[in-house]
Amino acid sequence: MTDTLKSIEPVNQKAIDAMAQFLEALGLDLKKLNMEKTPYRVAAAFGQFFSGLQENPDGEWTDPIITHTDGLVAVRNIRFQSMCEHHLLPFFGTVHIAYYPKNGKISGFGHFVNVVDILSRRPQLQERITEEICQSIVHGIAPQGVLVIVKATHLCLTMRSRLAVDTNIVTAASNGCLCRGSEPYNQAWKMLMEETLYGK
């Protein structure tokens, strides 16, 4: 852990001081508890957690691939972890993407992973990150249609309610010919989520 934190210096001193004040305001004696370095560690970690604020996901689409493909393309099970902006607690899960290329224009699969990574390294809401992934793909490769589904577990829910230990949240965003209610939407949803939701 220490080596990882050293690699992302400098750490914002205002954040370190504020974290120390926050912990002390909660009644923690940092010296007595041997937590003097905790404010630094927390500030360094959150600097990393929110580093996506300084990156533009749309920059991932600068080198498209032109093919003769016009069939449905799916990228499933992109794992992510992010921080809920309401409680600054983690939520994590998987992103599933399906799109119909337009004029054979596609992108390498790694770019979809990178876009998810950038957008997840920000204070987030699951509904918003789902829509932001969808819109980045639309802006980047202009497909005929795109569907993004995110399934996640939120620690702000599961840690605060013993009844929610197995709860997960599913959100979706779509565009173009894959808008909700269309037959292509239903086909894409089934391709992305049938195994995930129903264990088939």
UniProtKB/TrEMBL annotation:
InterPro entries: GTP-CH-I_C/QueF, GTP-CH-I_N, GTP_CycHdrlase_I, GTP_CycHdrlase_I_CS, GTP_CycHdrlase_I_dom. Belongs to the GTP cyclohydrolase I family. NCBIfam families: PRK09347.1-3. Pfam families: GTP_cyclohydroI (PF01227). It comes from Megasphaera cerevisiae DSM 20462. Pathway: Cofactor biosynthesis; 7,8-dihydroneopterin triphosphate biosynthesis; 7,8-dihydroneopterin triphosphate from GTP: step 1/1. It catalyses: GTP + H2O = 7,8-dihydroneopterin 3'-triphosphate + formate + H(+). Its EC number is 3.5.4.16. PROSITE patterns: GTP_CYCLOHYDROL_1_1, GTP_CYCLOHYDROL_1_2. Homopolymer. Zn(2+) binds at C84, H87, C156. One of its GO terms (biological process) is tetrahydrofolate biosynthetic process. This is GTP cyclohydrolase 1. GO terms for cellular component: cytoplasm. Keywords: GTP-binding, Hydrolase, Metal-binding, Nucleotide-binding, One-carbon metabolism, Zinc. Residues 17-181 form the GTP cyclohydrolase I domain. GO terms for molecular function: GTP binding; GTP cyclohydrolase I activity; zinc ion binding.
